Amino acid sequence: MNALQLLDPVSLAIVFGGTLAATLLRCGWRDARAALIALTQLPTRPFDSGRVRAELAAQVREICEDGILRAEPHSFGDGEFDDLSDALIRHRSIKALHDQHERHSARRRNAAETAGRVLAEAAELAPVLGLVGTLVALGGFSAAAGGDYARSIGTAVITTLYGLVLANFVFSPLAGAIARRARAEESEREDLIAWLAAAVERSIPGAPSKRDMDEKAAA
């Protein structure tokens, strides 16, 4: 079979464009925008925990040498850790550090879950739009003449194929890629927070450890 026979711009426009339109109508502009942002971030460089740890080390060294009272917040080029540094210095509290991290973590999880949900909807709708294209092509049988029957059949088959391909080889894999990237970044950030909290605990008089806070929360 000639691969060029599988290329049908009209069928692709019906399935792909229809899927995007239906997904937008089902999910709304805000969620669709969150999915688009997550997709544009996929080709970019992932979270560099090594760089952030190296820059955090300077902050930790300053706190250990000068004490938390004289330390100044640093800028790390990362929104969360900039806020964490500011919260740590302002409140002189490990709890403030963890609270700030939880707020950022919740926003990231929500954004990743929203993007995944939108792409899952698209994966669900793509085969439906493929079927719509098939029905449109089959509906042309009544007006087809001579060799146009073969063309209508080909269009009917190819739209179904496009729907299945978009669902299983485009939208679903993209949703999985966003979820994997979010989990990997969250794990690296959790490790950095644990390391930072442990490093500065001894510099904050009377600061409870993470274990103390967990035990208090459990009680």
UniProtKB/TrEMBL annotation:
Q: Where are the transmembrane segments?
A: 6-25, 125-147, 153-179
Where located? Cell membrane; Membrane
Signal sequence extent: none
**Topological category with respect to the lipid bilayer:** Multi-pass membrane protein
GO BP: bacterial-type flagellum-dependent swarming motility; chemotaxis; protein transport
- At the top level, the lineage of the source is Bacteria
Q: Write out the entry's keywords from A to Z.
A: Cell membrane, Membrane, Protein transport, Transmembrane, Transmembrane helix, Transport
State the coiled-coil residue ranges: none
Belongs to which family?
Answer: Belongs to the exbB/tolQ family.
- Name assigned to this protein: MotA/TolQ/ExbB proton channel domain-containing protein
Species of origin: Pelagerythrobacter marensis
Phylogenetic classification of the source organism = Bacteria, Pseudomonadati, Pseudomonadota, Alphaproteobacteria, Sphingomonadales
